[in-house]
Structures are given as C-alpha cells and as structure tokens.
Design a protein that fits this description.
Elements: H1 2-25, E1 28-30, H2 31-34, E2 35-37, E3 43-52, H3 65-77, E4 92-101, E5 110-117, E6 128-135, E7 141-148, E8 154-157, E9 162-165, E10 170-179, E11 192-197, H4 202-220, E12 225-227, E13 232-236, H5 243-250, E14 254-256, E15 262-266, E16 271-274, E17 279-296, E18 299-301, E19 312-314, E20 317-333, H6 336-346, H7 350-362, E21 366-367, E22 369-372
Parallel strand pairs: 15-22
Antiparallel strand pairs: 1-14, 2-11, 3-4, 3-6, 4-5, 5-10, 6-7, 7-10, 8-9, 11-13, 12-13, 15-16, 17-20, 17-21, 18-19
Length: 373
C-alpha cells in the first residue's frame, strides 16, 4: 500500500514538472535562429547599366538623354563608330543594378541582382542586361553582372484600354553577377565572435551568454561569453579552439527566448498583431459607429408644350443617419486567448478594434507597447 501511494506521489510530481517545463519548450530556439554573426553580415553593391532587346518599351532618347549617352559610350568601347543621326528606337533602357554580397563569398561564385528602370521605359520584359560592374561603399568593384532579366509583371495595351499587373519596370537576374573580388577581412583572422540579436532583449542576451559559458566551461574549462547590452554578446576565442568549429557548436545551442509585449497595428491595411505576452487590465469598453449617407437625385423639369420655358434641373438631396453599436463590454485579458475572445465579443471590424486598442492604451489598461505603422 505504501508503494502504491509513493507511486501516485511520484506520478503527481512528474506531472507538475512536465506542466512547468512544457511552456518553456515552446519558447526555445537555436542561437543561429535568433542572432547573427557580426562578421557575417551582407554588403550592398550598386551599379549602372543598360538593358537591351526590349520590344519598343525602352527609354525615349529625348526624355532620357543619359540612355543615349550611355549607349554611345558602350558602342565606342566596342570599337563601333557612333557618328550620325539620332536613333529613335526604344529597345534600350537605363537601369540601376543592385545586389547583396553575402558574407565569406569567394571569387567565382554567383549572386542574384535586381534591375530597376531609371528613365521612362514602360517594361523591361524580354530584355538583357549587358556587362555591368558592381561597386561597394569603398568604390571597389566586387562583381560583374550580365544576363536576361526576369520581370513578373506584364502590360497589355490597346487603342482604348490598358491592362497592367504587377511592376514591369523592375526585375531580377538570377545568378547574373559573378564575384570578382573577395572581402578584405577573413573570418579566421578574428580574435572573438560578436553575436547580434535580431530582436534585442536583455533577458535573451543574458541567457545566450549563460548557455555559451556552460558549454565553454565543460569544453574549455572556463567562461568565454559576455553580454555587452541587449543586442550584442561577445565570445572570446579559446586558445585551443578552432573558430569555425566553435561557431558551429555555439549556433546550435538551445536558448529560451524572451520578447517584450507588443501590439502592432497597420491602419492602412487593418492588420493587427498581438503578442502572446500582452495583458489588459479590467476595463469597460463601449463602441458605436455613426453612418451618414448622402444621396443626390436631381430631377429634370420640362416646360409646358408650346411654351417659351426652358428645361431646368431641380436638385434633390436625401440625408440618412444611422448609429449602431453602443454596447458596453468588459475586457479582461490575462492571456492572449481571453483578450482576443473579449475583442471578438464586441462584434466590431478591424478598424474598430484598432480604435479600441488605442483607447485602452490611452486609459493605461494595455500592458504592452503599441506600435503604429
């Protein structure tokens, strides 16, 4: 009998422990998913080029004279004389070419580029980007781009109608740039690793440092990580460690993440995003809308037959006002599910919920940061 009661007690303790641990499992992430390496950031590249082969949708040389100047300079570099009259063909467009140089990129590898029209071209569909050099912020050329541009939008035009879907003046050249120069800094020349949190938070930064120090103490015999602030965690390289292998081990460590409570509102699209940690103190809400409809129905008054009167227009305006809502509801959100259920019970549209959340924040009952976009 005693063994049976001990077994029940053990089962109860395990159930309580599982209940305490289960929520933490849902909030854990790998370090590589919540932080990035400072030395492993992208670098932006930019260049100016020409797209040729367009079907009459390119730049007009009168409104975009730089396109003609660029085309003449390109032909002269190819040994072709450009003396003569002005061309009226619209099969060429001047574009800005942009790309992101990934970290640790080596010469010979390819990256995607984006092309965007500079002149009055109506579409870049079917065009080919000619050889364009891409430079970094230091003015050095790091890549050369060339290839067929892919445009997702399209445009159809007739004599009386035009149909356009998507953007036809911007596109991509997949794998269109070849890297010609590597970055001056090398990963293994670093003396430490700097992790930058994608969502800065002091609690998460401290937990990352603790997890890394626990791993380093067991592996190298001492702590190596320190949280500088809410965004940066600095990891010193142990003498006997290989930096690449060290980063591979650290980025797969599991950390319990934490984020501040936020409510993000986009009034243009009516989008509302509520974080799981948002809390609302008990508050009474009354929401009502007033709809005013104005209808104009002018009447045409004709004169009597064989009279010298004139046809006149008599204005007639009907105004109707309707007020809905006005119910009072008590909202108390100790968790996200209860908060959403309370807002839905009021029976208002997203724009009404936005107004309610702003009012709750002004009343001091919303225990979260309200972000308006």
């Amino acid at each position: 009998m005693k063994l049976f009661f001990r077994f029940l007690t053990l089962v109860a303790v395990l159930a309580m422990n599982m209940a305490d641990v289960a929520p933490a499992w849902a909030l854990t992430s790998r370090i590589k998913d919540i932080a990035s390496l400072q030395a492993g950031r992208d670098n932006q590249l930019i260049g100016y080029g020409l797209i040729v082969g367009l079907q009459g949708t390119g730049d007009g040389f009168r409104s975009s004279p730089f396109t003609e100047q660029s085309m003449r300079a390109m032909l002269q570099n190819l040994g072709i004389s450009t003396q003569g009259g002005q061309s009226s063909a619209k099969n060429t467009a001047a574009v800005m070419v942009t790309a992101n140089l990934p970290p640790f990129a080596s010469p010979g590898s390819r990256i995607d580029v984006t092309v965007s029209s500079l002149g009055d071209a109506t579409s870049l569909r079917g065009g080919t980007l000619v050889m364009t050099s891409l430079s970094g912020a230091d003015g050095q050329i790091y890549a050369v781009a060339q290839g067929a541009a892919i445009v997702s939008g399209f445009q159809a035009q007739g004599q009386a109608a035009t149909v356009t879907e998507g953007v036809t003046t911007a596109g991509r050249v997949p794998g269109g740039a070849i890297i010609e120069r590597e970055l001056p800094s090398r990963f293994k020349d670093s003396v430490n690793l700097v992790l930058q949190l994608r969502n800065p938070d002091f609690s998460t930064a401290i937990r990352i440092a603790d997890i890394v120090n626990g791993y380093a103490s067991a592996r190298f015999g001492g702590p190596v990580a320190e949280a500088k602030d809410s965004q940066e965690v600095v990891i010193q390289k142990p003498r006997a460690a290989d930096l690449t292998r060290l980063m591979a081990d650290i980025e797969n460590l599991i950390v319990e993440t934490d984020t501040p409570a936020k409510v993000v509102i986009n009034e243009r699209t009516g989008t509302i995003v509520i974080g799981s940690d948002v809390r609302v103190s008990p508050v009474a809400v009354s929401y009502g809308t007033l709809t005013v409809q104005v209808t104009e129905t002018p009447q045409i008054i004709q004169p009597e037959p064989f009279s010298r009167g004139r046809t006149a227009v008599q204005p007639q305006t009907d105004i109707a006002a309707e007020q809905t809502g006005g119910r009072v509801a008590i909202i108390d959100g100790p968790d996200l599910r209860t908060l959403v259920a309370g807002l839905n019970n009021i029976g208002v549209k997203p724009d009404g919920i936005i107004a309610i959340l702003q009012g709750i924040k002004s009343a001091g009952a919303l225990q979260a940061e309200l972000v308006l976009q």
